[in-house]
Amino acid sequence: MPTIAVFDSGFGGLTVLRALLPLIPGADYIYLGDTARLPYGAKSRQTIVRYALSSAAFLLSQGAEMLVVACNTASALALDELRAALPIPVVGVIEPGVQAAAQLPTTNDQRPTVLVLATAATVQSHAYAQACATLNLTAYEKACPLLVPLVEEGWIDHPVTAEVLRIYLSEALAAAPSVSTLVLGCTHYPLIRPLIERTLATLNHPLQIVDSATATAQAARATLPGAPSQTASSFEVGSATFYATDSIEKFQRLGSAFLGQPLPEVQLIDLGG
Question: Which amino acids are annotated catalytic?
Answer without folding.
Answer: 71, 186
